[in-house]
Write a structure and sequence with these properties.
Length: 313
C-alpha cells in the first residue's frame, strides 16, 4: 500500500513539473512587440476622439445679429409760456396721464398751471417720466421752453439766456432718456437767427397733429394755436419756401380722403397767410392715406396718420 501511494505522489509531482515548465516559457519577440504596440494603439484612438479633425475650409458660423427694438413713442409735447405749461399729445389711458400730471406738479411746483390737452388713445406709447424733474429744473430760465418727443427723437426748443443753460438742458435730457436721439434747437438770447434748423423746429412744433373739427377742414382753436407756434420761426427765415401736405388715415374711401387732406392743407396755408406769411412762399397738396407714418390697424396709429406736415423746400 505504501509503495502504491509513493508511486501516485511521484506521478503527480512529475506532472506538475511538466506544466510549470510550459507556463514559465520565455515570451518571444512577437509578444514583446505586441506589448509595445497596444498602448500606442489606444493612445492614437483616444487622440482621434478628443481632437477631431478640423476642416479649415468649412464655412465659419456667425452669431445672429440681435438688436434692441427701436423706440417708437407717440407724440407728446410740453410747451411753457411763463407759468403756463400746455400738455398735448397721446397717452394710452387715464392712469398714465394722472401719473404724468403728478410728476410735473412735483417737478414744477404749485405755481405752475398745467393746461391739459392730452388725448387718450389706446395703444399709445409714452417715455419714462422720471427725467422731467431734472429737465425742467435745468430749463427754469427758458421761459418759452418746449419739450417734444416722437418716435425715437426728442426735440428741445426755446430761448436760453446763455450757452451754459442751453448745454445744461441738453445734458439733463440725455441723462433722463439716454436711448433717445436728442435734437437741441434751443437758441441763445440775442444771437443771430439761424435758418439751418428751420425744418426740425417746425417738425417739433407740429409733432402733435394739427387739430381740425371731426371730418372737416375747419381748424379748431387748438389747431390755430399749434400753427401759431411755427409763425415766428418762419418769419425769421423770409427766404424759406414751404409746402403744406395734408394726410388722413385709411378709414373712408380715397374719394373722401383725397379732397379732405387737400382742403386741410389749404386751410393751414390760409391761416399762415393770415399771420403774415407771404402767400407766394406757400403751396399745398393732399396725400390722402397714401403716406402713413404709423400702423392704421390701431387707434393710436390712425391718430398719428391724421396730420398736416410743413416741408421746407
Amino acid at each position: 500500500m505504501t509503495g502504491s501511494g509513493d508511486a501516485r505522489v511521484t506521478a503527480t509531482a512529475t506532472q506538475w513539473r511538466t506544466e510549470s515548465r510550459f507556463y514559465r516559457r520565455s515570451p518571444g519577440w512577437g509578444w514583446l512587440a505586441g506589448l509595445l504596440l497596444v498602448p500606442l494603439l489606444f493612445g492614437w484612438i483616444g487622440a482621434s476622439v478628443v481632437k477631431p479633425t478640423v476642416d479649415v475650409n468649412a464655412p465659419s458660423v456667425s452669431m445672429p445679429d440681435v438688436s434692441m427694438p427701436s423706440l417708437n413713442f407717440s407724440p407728446l409735447s410740453i410747451l411753457r409760456n411763463g407759468n403756463d405749461f400746455t400738455l398735448s399729445g397721446f397717452l394710452p389711458d387715464l392712469g398714465v396721464k394722472e401719473k404724468l400730471l403728478s410728476v410735473l406738479t412735483a417737478a414744477l411746483g404749485p405755481a405752475a398751471n398745467l393746461i391739459d390737452k392730452i388725448d387718450i388713445t389706446p395703444g399709445a406709447t409714452a417715455p419714462d417720466f422720471g427725467g422731467f424733474e431734472a429737465l425742467f429744473k435745468a430749463a427754469v430760465d427758458v421761459p418759452d421752453f418746449q419739450f417734444t418727443v416722437e418716435g425715437d427723437t426728442m426735440t428741445l426748443s426755446g430761448i436760453a439766456p446763455s450757452e451754459e443753460v442751453r448745454a445744461a438742458v441738453e445734458a439733463a435730457a440725455k441723462a433722463g432718456w439716454p436711448d433717445v436721439t436728442i435734437i437741441n434747437n434751443i437758441s441763445i438770447e440775442g444771437a443771430p437767427v439761424s435758418c439751418d434748423n428751420l425744418q426740425t423746429t417746425i417738425d417739433a412744433d407740429l409733432a402733435v397733429p394739427v387739430k381740425f373739427q371731426t371730418g372737416s377742414d375747419v381748424l379748431t382753436a387748438d389747431g390755430q394755436q399749434q400753427l401759431m407756434a411755427v409763425v415766428p420761426a418762419v418769419k425769421a427765415c423770409p427766404d424759406a419756401r414751404l409746402t403744406v401736405i395734408g394726410h388722413t388715415d385709411n378709414t373712408g374711401t380715397d374719394a373722401i380722403n383725397g379732397p379732405l387732406s387737400e382742403n386741410r392743407a389749404r386751410a393751414v396755408v390760409a391761416y399762415l397767410e393770415s399771420q403774415g406769411i407771404p402767400a407766394d412762399s406757400l403751396t399745398s397738396e393732399g396725400a390722402g392715406a397714401t403716406q402713413p407714418v404709423a400702423d392704421n390697424d390701431t387707434e393710436a396709429g390712425r391718430a398719428q396718420n391724421r396730420r398736416t406736415e410743413i416741408k421746407v423746400n
